[in-house]
User: Fold this.
Amino acid sequence: MTATPETTETAPPGGRTRRGMTVMIGVLLVAAFVMVLNETVMSIALPHVMADFSVPASTAQWLTTVFMLTMAVVIPLTGFVLQRFASRAVFAGALLLFTAGTLLAALAPAFGVLVAARALQAAGTAVVLPLLTTTILTFVPVQRRGTVFGLVSVVISVAPAVGPTLSGVILSAFGWRAVFVAVLPVAVLALGLGLVLVRDIGTPRPLPLDLPSVLLSATAFGALIFGLSSIGESTEGHALLPPALPVAVGATALALFVRRQLRLQREDRALLDLRPFALRPFSIGVVVLLIAMASLFGALILLPLYLQNVRGLSALETGLAVLPGGVLMGVVAPFIGRLYDRVGPRPLAIPGAVVLAAALFLMAFLFDERTGALTVTLLHMLLTLGLGFLMTPLMTSALGSLPQHLYSHGSAIMNTLQQLAGAVGTALFVTLMALGTAGAAAGGAPATAAQAAGIQQAFLVGACVAVVAVVAACFVRGPETRAAQAVSGGDAS
Assistant:
């Protein structure tokens, strides 16, 4: 059959129709949104779980910590997995893990079983995110990638913000198990649609698995996430270990891991190929994106503490107060994606970084024990607006700068570092809040005023860090001028 000129221009590689690829990417987006949503969905439900299983807060926190730990351990492996196995099988395996974990969580008879279920959910989530970005890079033409990555920004940034709100709404009427019951049908539907609609990307290669790299990767990222996540607990005297110990172990293992990957990638045997960092658009884009993600997760951890502990709002009221920001980001992300396709990354990234820094500065100076919930909501919306102008341009330009054979590794690197940035942002904001609170209390401030002062200090330092993102955003450039076209097969447009 001879293709018409229109078909030849718009059909994706491998004989797939544009409509077929749109449906496939839609399934991946829905699956990824539901899975990422679960990363924060338990934050408000922890008191209910503590009551049901009679566990202290330091133990219950493992429901969120184990999710981050598993993501950090599994994501670096996905560059290898996506090249070694058929993508349809990878998707099916990831959704099966997530669905099984969701069902097990809903039925968990003991706290240990619930923790294991969360690990299964995270393992599936960790695989689907790089699969989604690799699919987009492979089949979406360069001139439309911004639009599609706008939808990916909704998944990465909006889903974690909406999670606590959804949890609060469900908990107001049902128990914590209903949070998982509500997700289960969507997970089953995504699995069924995926088995029918998801197709393979490229041809699997019989790559050898370097076990020392796997062990170093798991130790490095697992220990770093664990250490950073436990800083908040250590300020309250509940940490299992001094945070400096796992952070030191993780940093050492990371140095050894990087050294081994640099050696193995010369023979094309690296578990996680680090050559994407040789491309300036990728490196700069990742730096700015990591600052943005650290700001997002830092704000997500402090805003509920401020609204509940300082302003006295309930869990449901807190969730509703931060919901407009998440909705705003979801609404503007696709439009920003379309703008990216027209003007490129820099005209969007610079104002986005400026708005992000401005929002953090305003939070630092306006959040006290008398600030109204409406002001908090408006400032949170300003913060998410700035993030919206950053996420899509940075993801699209950074990943689009890569040659095709590095797509899966670039996706794995970016998703891994986003998890690490979230942990760093959380640890930094919580530590600064604790230090500021202790200092204000020592000066004679009442408990509520002292915590407000600590939260202001955390946002002020976060704003200063965001200024670095403003400077770096001035050097962001589009991928078209670099090596993306230099490789045969190029950008698959």
